[in-house]
Structure to design on (195 residues):
């Protein structure tokens, strides 16, 4: 019976004690190192913060470190957790799409860009820079799809028409957002109507 009690003690010691102050210190140190482009060192501190428990901010920052170091599969895993925690934030989908593009997951990339646009439309602060980035990424993906049109099913396990339709739908949504924002940005006064 003593072995059973000892087993419980060993098992308990494998899990780190949660220390909020240490997690905060590791997160802050990780942020500083990330901003200084010291990504390997930042990962060390962010890993320590992750081991203290789930914190969406830590996972997001760690995912960005993984991207900078070209560890895109790990970045996708962390962005999955961040999106699960806050599925309405459009920027997380865009960031994950960047990593999916890097690993040649074309359908995953386009689906994430589509989700990014969907949640972006619900955002009150429309930034043209974000729309331009989305549009550029979609056009590049569209050109790529045209280049591999005959082999896309065997390479990416998705039909040409399916991916092309999704890209076109995304581009159409961006165009609608741009038109809507132009209408609200240009105030119509009586002077402009009379001119």
């Amino acid at each position: 019976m003593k072995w059973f009690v000892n087993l419980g003690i060993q098992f308990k010691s494998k899990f780190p004690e949660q220390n909020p102050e240490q997690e905060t210190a590791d997160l802050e140190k990780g942020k500083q190192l990330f901003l200084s482009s010291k990504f390997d060192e930042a990962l060390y501190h962010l890993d320590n913060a992750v081991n203290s428990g789930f914190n969406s901010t830590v996972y997001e920052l760690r995912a960005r470190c993984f991207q900078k170091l070209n560890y895109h599969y790990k970045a996708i895993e962390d962005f999955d957790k961040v999106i699960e925690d806050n599925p309405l934030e459009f920027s997380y989908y865009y960031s994950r799409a960047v990593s999916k593009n890097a690993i040649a997951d074309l359908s995953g990339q386009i689906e994430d860009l589509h989700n990014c646009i969907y949640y972006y439309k619900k955002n009150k602060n429309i930034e043209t820079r974000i729309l331009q980035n989305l549009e550029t990424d979609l056009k590049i993906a569209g050109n790529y799809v045209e280049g591999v049109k005959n082999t896309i099913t065997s390479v990416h396990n998705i039909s040409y028409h399916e991916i092309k339709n999704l890209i076109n739908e995304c581009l159409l949504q961006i165009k609608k957002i741009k038109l809507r924002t132009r209408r609200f940005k240009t105030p119509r006064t009586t002077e402009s109507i009379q001119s």
Summary: The chain has two domains: 17-86, 87-183. The longest helix spans residues 160-185. The radius of gyration is 22 Å.
